[in-house]
Protein backbone atom coordinates (compact mmCIF):
# COMPACT_ATOMS: atom_id res chain seq x y z
CA UNK A 1 0.00 0.00 0.00
CA UNK A 2 1.28 3.48 -0.84
CA UNK A 3 2.16 5.56 2.18
CA UNK A 4 0.20 8.73 2.80
CA UNK A 5 2.05 12.02 3.20
CA UNK A 6 3.44 12.25 6.72
CA UNK A 7 1.26 14.48 8.82
CA UNK A 8 0.80 12.96 12.28
CA UNK A 9 2.33 14.66 15.24
CA UNK A 10 3.27 12.75 18.35
CA UNK A 11 0.42 14.52 20.15
CA UNK A 12 -2.17 13.16 17.72
CA UNK A 13 -0.80 9.64 17.98
CA UNK A 14 -0.86 9.77 21.77
CA UNK A 15 -4.38 11.14 21.69
CA UNK A 16 -5.44 8.34 19.37
CA UNK A 17 -4.08 5.85 21.83
CA UNK A 18 -6.04 7.51 24.62
CA UNK A 19 -9.27 7.26 22.65
CA UNK A 20 -8.65 3.63 21.81
CA UNK A 21 -8.11 2.90 25.48
CA UNK A 22 -11.28 4.79 26.42
CA UNK A 23 -13.32 2.91 23.82
CA UNK A 24 -12.22 -0.53 25.00
CA UNK A 25 -14.99 -0.83 27.57
CA UNK A 26 -18.02 0.39 25.65
CA UNK A 27 -20.46 -0.81 28.26
CA UNK A 28 -18.80 1.46 30.80
CA UNK A 29 -18.45 4.53 28.61
CA UNK A 30 -21.63 4.34 26.55
CA UNK A 31 -23.95 1.92 28.36
CA UNK A 32 -26.49 4.27 29.92
CA UNK A 33 -26.59 6.82 27.13
CA UNK A 34 -27.18 4.38 24.31
CA UNK A 35 -30.36 3.18 25.95
CA UNK A 36 -31.91 6.66 25.78
CA UNK A 37 -34.93 6.08 23.53
CA UNK A 38 -35.10 9.62 22.13
CA UNK A 39 -31.58 9.51 20.71
CA UNK A 40 -30.46 7.81 17.54
CA UNK A 41 -27.40 5.56 17.97
CA UNK A 42 -25.21 8.28 16.45
CA UNK A 43 -26.67 10.96 18.72
CA UNK A 44 -26.14 8.70 21.73
CA UNK A 45 -22.54 8.15 20.65
CA UNK A 46 -21.98 11.91 20.39
CA UNK A 47 -23.58 12.42 23.79
CA UNK A 48 -21.24 9.82 25.25
CA UNK A 49 -18.23 11.53 23.69
CA UNK A 50 -19.45 14.81 25.14
CA UNK A 51 -19.90 13.36 28.63
CA UNK A 52 -16.29 12.16 28.65
CA UNK A 53 -14.91 15.39 27.21
CA UNK A 54 -13.84 13.73 23.98
CA UNK A 55 -16.34 15.58 21.79
CA UNK A 56 -14.37 18.81 22.20
CA UNK A 57 -11.06 17.33 21.14
CA UNK A 58 -9.78 17.90 17.62
CA UNK A 59 -10.66 14.37 16.53
CA UNK A 60 -14.08 14.55 18.18
CA UNK A 61 -14.88 17.81 16.41
CA UNK A 62 -13.59 16.43 13.12
CA UNK A 63 -15.85 13.37 13.47
CA UNK A 64 -18.91 15.56 14.06
CA UNK A 65 -18.02 17.85 11.13
CA UNK A 66 -17.52 14.85 8.87
CA UNK A 67 -21.13 13.79 9.41
CA UNK A 68 -22.46 17.25 8.55
CA UNK A 69 -20.13 17.64 5.58
CA UNK A 70 -21.21 14.29 4.16
CA UNK A 71 -24.84 15.43 4.02
CA UNK A 72 -23.92 18.68 2.30
CA UNK A 73 -21.60 16.94 -0.19
CA UNK A 74 -23.63 13.78 -0.74
CA UNK A 75 -22.77 11.59 -3.71
CA UNK A 76 -25.42 11.34 -6.42
CA UNK A 77 -26.34 7.74 -7.18
CA UNK A 78 -29.28 5.66 -8.30
CA UNK A 79 -30.07 2.06 -7.31
CA UNK A 80 -29.14 -0.62 -8.15
CA UNK A 81 -25.78 0.47 -6.80
CA UNK A 82 -22.77 -1.12 -5.13
CA UNK A 83 -19.72 0.58 -3.71
CA UNK A 84 -16.78 -0.71 -1.72
CA UNK A 85 -15.02 1.94 0.32
CA UNK A 86 -12.41 2.48 2.99
CA UNK A 87 -12.19 4.67 6.10
CA UNK A 88 -8.85 5.47 7.74
CA UNK A 89 -8.66 5.60 11.54
CA UNK A 90 -6.59 8.79 11.55
CA UNK A 91 -8.99 10.69 9.28
CA UNK A 92 -12.57 10.92 10.70
CA UNK A 93 -14.91 10.73 7.75
CA UNK A 94 -18.41 9.83 6.58
CA UNK A 95 -20.09 9.27 3.23
CA UNK A 96 -23.64 10.06 2.14
CA UNK A 97 -25.46 8.83 -0.96
CA UNK A 98 -28.17 10.96 -2.56
CA UNK A 99 -30.93 9.36 -4.62
CA UNK A 100 -34.29 10.24 -6.14
CA UNK A 101 -37.04 7.89 -4.98
CA UNK A 102 -40.70 7.57 -5.96
CA UNK A 103 -43.80 6.98 -3.90
CA UNK A 104 -44.43 3.24 -3.83
CA UNK A 105 -40.79 2.17 -4.00
CA UNK A 106 -39.05 0.14 -1.33
CA UNK A 107 -35.41 1.05 -0.73
CA UNK A 108 -33.33 -1.87 0.52
CA UNK A 109 -29.83 -1.39 1.91
CA UNK A 110 -27.24 -3.99 2.83
CA UNK A 111 -23.93 -3.11 4.45
CA UNK A 112 -21.03 -5.51 4.92
CA UNK A 113 -18.12 -4.21 7.00
CA UNK A 114 -14.62 -5.48 7.69
CA UNK A 115 -13.84 -6.05 10.46
CA UNK A 116 -17.41 -6.62 11.57
CA UNK A 117 -16.58 -5.52 15.12
CA UNK A 118 -16.46 -1.86 14.04
CA UNK A 119 -19.57 0.15 14.90
CA UNK A 120 -21.25 1.91 11.99
CA UNK A 121 -23.95 4.56 12.19
CA UNK A 122 -26.43 4.47 9.30
CA UNK A 123 -29.05 7.21 8.95
CA UNK A 124 -31.59 8.04 6.26
CA UNK A 125 -32.68 11.63 5.59
CA UNK A 126 -35.08 13.41 3.27
CA UNK A 127 -33.66 16.56 1.70
CA UNK A 128 -36.22 19.29 2.29
CA UNK A 129 -33.87 22.18 1.56
CA UNK A 130 -35.05 25.24 -0.32
CA UNK A 131 -33.19 28.00 -2.14
CA UNK A 132 -32.83 29.85 1.16
CA UNK A 133 -32.70 27.07 3.77
CA UNK A 134 -30.87 23.80 4.34
CA UNK A 135 -32.96 21.08 5.93
CA UNK A 136 -32.18 17.37 6.10
CA UNK A 137 -35.05 15.68 7.93
CA UNK A 138 -34.01 12.51 9.74
CA UNK A 139 -36.32 9.60 8.95
CA UNK A 140 -34.76 6.33 9.95
CA UNK A 141 -31.62 4.71 11.30
CA UNK A 142 -30.27 1.24 11.82
CA UNK A 143 -30.10 -0.04 15.36
CA UNK A 144 -26.85 -0.55 17.22
CA UNK A 145 -27.14 -4.34 17.11
CA UNK A 146 -28.16 -4.52 13.43
CA UNK A 147 -26.41 -2.10 11.11
CA UNK A 148 -26.15 -4.46 8.15
CA UNK A 149 -29.59 -3.82 6.62
CA UNK A 150 -32.29 -1.20 6.31
CA UNK A 151 -35.63 -1.19 4.46
CA UNK A 152 -37.57 2.00 3.79
CA UNK A 153 -40.93 2.36 2.10
CA UNK A 154 -41.18 5.65 0.21
CA UNK A 155 -44.43 7.41 1.03
CA UNK A 156 -43.48 10.70 -0.61
CA UNK A 157 -41.41 11.12 -3.76
CA UNK A 158 -38.30 13.22 -3.35
CA UNK A 159 -34.58 13.33 -2.67
CA UNK A 160 -33.28 10.99 0.01
CA UNK A 161 -29.81 10.76 1.54
CA UNK A 162 -28.29 7.70 3.19
CA UNK A 163 -25.29 8.46 5.42
CA UNK A 164 -22.86 5.92 6.83
CA UNK A 165 -20.13 6.70 9.33
CA UNK A 166 -17.87 4.42 11.39
CA UNK A 167 -16.95 5.10 14.97
CA UNK A 168 -13.86 7.12 15.81
CA UNK A 169 -10.41 5.64 15.27
CA UNK A 170 -11.58 2.79 13.06
CA UNK A 171 -9.75 1.64 9.96
CA UNK A 172 -12.44 -0.27 8.14
CA UNK A 173 -13.70 -1.34 4.75
CA UNK A 174 -17.35 -1.53 3.73
CA UNK A 175 -19.46 -2.72 0.82
CA UNK A 176 -22.79 -0.98 0.37
CA UNK A 177 -25.60 -2.39 -1.77
CA UNK A 178 -28.67 -0.33 -2.65
CA UNK A 179 -31.62 -1.70 -4.58
CA UNK A 180 -35.20 -0.53 -5.12
CA UNK A 181 -38.19 -2.85 -5.35
CA UNK A 182 -41.94 -2.20 -5.60
CA UNK A 183 -43.80 -2.02 -2.31
CA UNK A 184 -46.37 -4.51 -3.59
CA UNK A 185 -44.95 -7.97 -4.05
CA UNK A 186 -47.40 -9.28 -6.66
CA UNK A 187 -47.78 -7.97 -10.22
CA UNK A 188 -51.50 -7.31 -10.91
CA UNK A 189 -51.74 -9.65 -13.94
CA UNK A 190 -50.58 -13.22 -13.52
CA UNK A 191 -47.57 -14.15 -15.64
CA UNK A 192 -47.04 -10.62 -16.92
CA UNK A 193 -44.30 -8.09 -16.22
CA UNK A 194 -43.18 -4.50 -16.76
CA UNK A 195 -42.92 -4.81 -20.54
CA UNK A 196 -46.65 -5.56 -20.74
CA UNK A 197 -47.49 -2.08 -19.45
CA UNK A 198 -48.32 -0.13 -22.61
CA UNK A 199 -50.00 2.95 -21.18
CA UNK A 200 -48.89 4.96 -18.18
CA UNK A 201 -50.18 7.32 -15.51
CA UNK A 202 -50.72 10.83 -16.87
CA UNK A 203 -50.98 9.85 -20.53
CA UNK A 204 -53.54 12.04 -22.36
CA UNK A 205 -57.03 10.68 -22.96
CA UNK A 206 -59.95 11.92 -25.09
CA UNK A 207 -57.74 14.21 -27.14
CA UNK A 208 -56.08 15.70 -24.08
CA UNK A 209 -59.31 16.47 -22.20
CA UNK A 210 -58.31 14.20 -19.33
CA UNK A 211 -55.30 12.30 -18.04
CA UNK A 212 -54.93 8.57 -17.60
CA UNK A 213 -55.38 7.75 -13.90
CA UNK A 214 -53.55 4.44 -13.92
CA UNK A 215 -51.56 1.99 -16.03
CA UNK A 216 -52.80 -0.47 -18.66
CA UNK A 217 -51.40 -4.01 -18.57
CA UNK A 218 -52.17 -5.94 -21.75
CA UNK A 219 -52.83 -9.68 -21.69
CA UNK A 220 -55.03 -12.28 -23.32
CA UNK A 221 -58.69 -12.35 -22.39
CA UNK A 222 -59.22 -14.58 -19.38
CA UNK A 223 -55.74 -14.09 -17.89
CA UNK A 224 -56.03 -14.04 -14.06
CA UNK A 225 -55.96 -10.64 -12.38
CA UNK A 226 -54.50 -10.91 -8.86
CA UNK A 227 -54.37 -8.96 -5.63
CA UNK A 228 -51.16 -6.94 -5.46
CA UNK A 229 -51.37 -6.76 -1.66
CA UNK A 230 -53.21 -8.31 1.26
CA UNK A 231 -56.51 -6.55 1.80
CA UNK A 232 -60.30 -6.56 1.72
CA UNK A 233 -62.49 -6.42 -1.37
CA UNK A 234 -64.34 -3.16 -0.91
CA UNK A 235 -66.51 -3.17 -4.01
CA UNK A 236 -67.46 -5.42 -6.94
CA UNK A 237 -69.50 -3.67 -9.62
CA UNK A 238 -70.20 -3.23 -13.33
CA UNK A 239 -70.71 0.35 -14.46
CA UNK A 240 -69.27 3.41 -16.16
CA UNK A 241 -65.91 3.70 -17.88
CA UNK A 242 -64.38 0.85 -15.90
CA UNK A 243 -66.99 -1.74 -16.80
CA UNK A 244 -66.59 -4.79 -14.61
CA UNK A 245 -64.35 -3.69 -11.78
CA UNK A 246 -63.01 -4.67 -8.37
CA UNK A 247 -61.88 -2.29 -5.63
CA UNK A 248 -59.38 -3.70 -3.13
CA UNK A 249 -58.69 -1.85 0.13
CA UNK A 250 -55.10 -1.59 1.42
CA UNK A 251 -55.67 -0.74 5.11
CA UNK A 252 -51.97 -0.32 5.89
CA UNK A 253 -51.50 2.56 3.44
CA UNK A 254 -55.05 3.94 3.51
CA UNK A 255 -55.52 3.54 -0.22
CA UNK A 256 -57.63 1.53 -2.66
CA UNK A 257 -56.52 -0.52 -5.65
CA UNK A 258 -58.74 -0.29 -8.72
CA UNK A 259 -59.02 -3.17 -11.23
CA UNK A 260 -61.10 -2.28 -14.30
CA UNK A 261 -62.27 -3.64 -17.70
CA UNK A 262 -62.50 -7.17 -16.29
CA UNK A 263 -64.11 -9.95 -18.29
CA UNK A 264 -65.41 -11.43 -15.05
CA UNK A 265 -65.11 -10.88 -11.29
CA UNK A 266 -64.33 -13.83 -9.02
CA UNK A 267 -64.58 -12.27 -5.55
CA UNK A 268 -67.32 -10.76 -3.41
CA UNK A 269 -67.52 -7.58 -1.36
CA UNK A 270 -66.04 -7.93 2.12
CA UNK A 271 -63.84 -10.88 1.15
CA UNK A 272 -60.32 -10.91 2.63
CA UNK A 273 -57.60 -11.80 0.13
CA UNK A 274 -53.86 -12.35 0.15
CA UNK A 275 -51.35 -10.98 -2.34
CA UNK A 276 -51.49 -13.23 -5.40
CA UNK A 277 -55.11 -14.34 -4.94
CA UNK A 278 -57.21 -14.15 -8.12
CA UNK A 279 -59.74 -11.29 -8.21
CA UNK A 280 -61.03 -11.69 -11.76
CA UNK A 281 -60.06 -12.19 -15.39
CA UNK A 282 -58.67 -9.76 -17.98
CA UNK A 283 -61.22 -8.36 -20.43
CA UNK A 284 -62.22 -5.16 -22.22
CA UNK A 285 -65.51 -4.11 -20.67
CA UNK A 286 -66.60 -0.51 -20.11
CA UNK A 287 -65.04 2.07 -22.40
CA UNK A 288 -62.36 -0.46 -23.45
CA UNK A 289 -64.76 -2.49 -25.60
CA UNK A 290 -63.01 -1.31 -28.79
CA UNK A 291 -59.47 -2.01 -27.55
CA UNK A 292 -57.49 -5.16 -26.95
CA UNK A 293 -58.12 -6.92 -23.61
CA UNK A 294 -56.13 -5.37 -20.78
CA UNK A 295 -56.28 -4.50 -17.11
CA UNK A 296 -56.60 -0.87 -16.11
CA UNK A 297 -54.87 -0.74 -12.71
CA UNK A 298 -55.07 2.33 -10.51
CA UNK A 299 -54.39 3.39 -6.93
CA UNK A 300 -56.40 6.02 -5.06
CA UNK A 301 -55.00 7.35 -1.80
CA UNK A 302 -57.12 8.97 0.85
CA UNK A 303 -56.61 12.73 0.70
CA UNK A 304 -54.66 12.57 -2.58
CA UNK A 305 -56.92 10.98 -5.17
CA UNK A 306 -55.31 9.02 -7.99
CA UNK A 307 -51.56 8.40 -7.63
CA UNK A 308 -49.11 6.75 -9.99
CA UNK A 309 -49.34 2.97 -9.44
CA UNK A 310 -46.29 2.11 -11.54
CA UNK A 311 -43.65 2.27 -8.76
CA UNK A 312 -45.85 0.08 -6.54
CA UNK A 313 -45.82 -2.88 -8.93
CA UNK A 314 -43.00 -2.44 -11.48
CA UNK A 315 -40.20 -4.81 -10.60
CA UNK A 316 -36.60 -3.62 -10.78
CA UNK A 317 -33.48 -5.70 -10.85
CA UNK A 318 -32.20 -6.86 -7.49
CA UNK A 319 -28.69 -7.42 -8.86
CA UNK A 320 -26.19 -4.68 -8.12
CA UNK A 321 -23.37 -4.04 -10.62
CA UNK A 322 -20.17 -5.79 -9.60
CA UNK A 323 -17.14 -3.75 -8.54
CA UNK A 324 -14.60 -4.20 -11.34
CA UNK A 325 -12.06 -1.58 -10.24
CA UNK A 326 -9.15 -2.98 -8.23
CA UNK A 327 -10.17 -2.66 -4.57
CA UNK A 328 -6.56 -3.19 -3.51
CA UNK A 329 -6.11 0.51 -4.33
CA UNK A 330 -8.55 1.63 -1.62
CA UNK A 331 -6.85 3.87 0.91
CA UNK A 332 -3.89 4.43 -1.40
CA UNK A 333 -2.63 7.60 -3.02
CA UNK A 334 -2.65 7.40 -6.82
CA UNK A 335 -2.17 10.08 -9.46
CA UNK A 336 -3.97 11.27 -12.56
CA UNK A 337 -2.62 9.57 -15.67
CA UNK A 338 -3.52 12.19 -18.31
CA UNK A 339 -4.09 15.94 -18.59
CA UNK A 340 -7.62 17.36 -18.65
CA UNK A 341 -9.12 14.38 -16.85
CA UNK A 342 -12.79 14.77 -16.03
CA UNK A 343 -13.87 14.49 -12.38
CA UNK A 344 -17.54 13.45 -12.28
CA UNK A 345 -20.27 13.78 -9.66
CA UNK A 346 -21.36 10.15 -10.07
CA UNK A 347 -19.87 6.91 -11.44
CA UNK A 348 -21.50 7.44 -14.84
CA UNK A 349 -20.04 8.85 -18.03
CA UNK A 350 -22.92 11.31 -18.46
CA UNK A 351 -22.93 12.63 -14.91
CA UNK A 352 -22.22 16.25 -14.04
CA UNK A 353 -18.60 17.36 -14.36
CA UNK A 354 -17.10 18.71 -11.14
CA UNK A 355 -13.65 19.70 -12.34
CA UNK A 356 -10.88 19.07 -14.85
CA UNK A 357 -7.78 17.57 -13.26
CA UNK A 358 -4.16 18.06 -14.27
CA UNK A 359 -1.80 15.23 -15.03
CA UNK A 360 0.13 13.82 -12.06
CA UNK A 361 -2.26 15.29 -9.47
CA UNK A 362 -2.19 12.91 -6.46
CA UNK A 363 -5.58 11.66 -5.29
CA UNK A 364 -6.69 9.57 -2.36
CA UNK A 365 -8.69 6.53 -3.48
CA UNK A 366 -11.74 6.38 -1.23
CA UNK A 367 -14.01 3.81 -2.87
CA UNK A 368 -14.70 1.72 -5.95
CA UNK A 369 -17.98 1.34 -7.85
CA UNK A 370 -18.24 -0.69 -11.07
CA UNK A 371 -15.13 0.40 -13.02
CA UNK A 372 -14.89 3.79 -11.29
CA UNK A 373 -12.99 5.13 -8.30
CA UNK A 374 -14.28 7.73 -5.89
CA UNK A 375 -11.32 9.96 -5.11
CA UNK A 376 -10.43 13.07 -3.12
CA UNK A 377 -7.93 15.73 -4.15
CA UNK A 378 -5.41 17.35 -1.77
CA UNK A 379 -7.76 20.36 -1.69
CA UNK A 380 -10.65 18.18 -0.49
CA UNK A 381 -12.64 17.96 -3.75
CA UNK A 382 -14.22 14.52 -4.10
CA UNK A 383 -15.73 12.84 -7.14
CA UNK A 384 -15.47 9.89 -9.50
CA UNK A 385 -12.91 8.91 -12.14
CA UNK A 386 -12.74 5.88 -14.43
CA UNK A 387 -10.35 3.38 -12.88
CA UNK A 388 -8.03 3.57 -15.90
CA UNK A 389 -7.60 7.32 -15.38
CA UNK A 390 -5.31 6.65 -12.39
CA UNK A 391 -1.86 5.16 -11.99
CA UNK A 392 0.06 4.21 -8.86
CA UNK A 393 3.08 6.08 -7.53
CA UNK A 394 5.61 3.30 -8.07
CA UNK A 395 7.23 5.08 -11.00
CA UNK A 396 8.75 8.48 -10.28
CA UNK A 397 8.08 11.37 -12.65
CA UNK A 398 11.33 13.12 -11.77
CA UNK A 399 14.26 13.29 -9.36
CA UNK A 400 15.63 16.06 -7.19
CA UNK A 401 18.85 16.55 -5.29
CA UNK A 402 18.17 19.09 -2.57
CA UNK A 403 20.69 21.95 -2.56
CA UNK A 404 19.54 23.11 0.88
CA UNK A 405 17.56 21.80 3.86
CA UNK A 406 13.87 21.48 2.96
CA UNK A 407 10.83 21.48 5.21
CA UNK A 408 8.26 18.84 4.30
CA UNK A 409 4.56 19.64 4.56
CA UNK A 410 1.37 17.79 5.41
CA UNK A 411 -0.50 19.20 2.39
CA UNK A 412 0.19 21.31 -0.71
CA UNK A 413 -0.86 24.64 0.83
CA UNK A 414 0.94 27.55 2.46
CA UNK A 415 -0.98 26.91 5.70
CA UNK A 416 0.01 23.24 5.90
CA UNK A 417 1.78 22.04 9.02
CA UNK A 418 5.39 20.91 8.66
CA UNK A 419 5.84 17.19 9.26
CA UNK A 420 9.57 16.65 8.75
CA UNK A 421 12.71 18.14 7.26
CA UNK A 422 15.34 16.78 4.89
CA UNK A 423 18.98 17.89 4.89
CA UNK A 424 20.78 19.29 1.88
CA UNK A 425 22.06 16.82 -0.72
CA UNK A 426 19.16 14.42 -0.06
CA UNK A 427 17.99 12.74 -3.25
CA UNK A 428 14.23 12.37 -3.57
CA UNK A 429 11.78 11.09 -6.18
CA UNK A 430 8.96 13.31 -7.39
CA UNK A 431 5.76 11.25 -7.58
CA UNK A 432 3.04 13.90 -7.86
CA UNK A 433 2.33 17.55 -8.67
CA UNK A 434 -0.25 19.97 -7.31
CA UNK A 435 0.28 23.54 -8.48
CA UNK A 436 3.55 24.86 -7.05
CA UNK A 437 4.01 21.84 -4.80
CA UNK A 438 5.61 18.46 -5.38
CA UNK A 439 4.76 15.20 -3.68
CA UNK A 440 8.12 13.57 -3.02
CA UNK A 441 9.28 10.19 -1.81
CA UNK A 442 12.32 10.29 0.47
CA UNK A 443 15.04 7.62 0.70
CA UNK A 444 13.04 5.83 3.43
CA UNK A 445 10.01 5.51 1.14
CA UNK A 446 7.84 8.04 3.01
CA UNK A 447 5.92 10.68 1.05
CA UNK A 448 5.31 14.34 1.87
CA UNK A 449 4.87 17.68 0.12
CA UNK A 450 7.43 20.38 -0.61
CA UNK A 451 7.47 23.64 -2.52
CA UNK A 452 8.69 23.26 -6.09
CA UNK A 453 11.33 25.94 -5.48
CA UNK A 454 11.82 26.12 -1.70
CA UNK A 455 12.91 29.50 -0.38
TrEMBL record:
High-level lineage: Bacteria, Pseudomonadati, Bacteroidota, Saprospiria, Saprospirales
Domain of life according to the entry: Bacteria
Organism: Flavilitoribacter nigricans (strain ATCC 23147 / DSM 23189 / NBRC 102662 / NCIMB 1420 / SS-2) (Lewinella nigricans)
Gene3D superfamilies: Glucose Permease (Domain IIA), SH3 Domains
Gene Ontology terms, MF aspect: metalloendopeptidase activity
Pfam family, one: Peptidase_M23
Annotated ranges, domain M23ase beta-sheet core: 211-309
Protein name (record): Peptidase M23
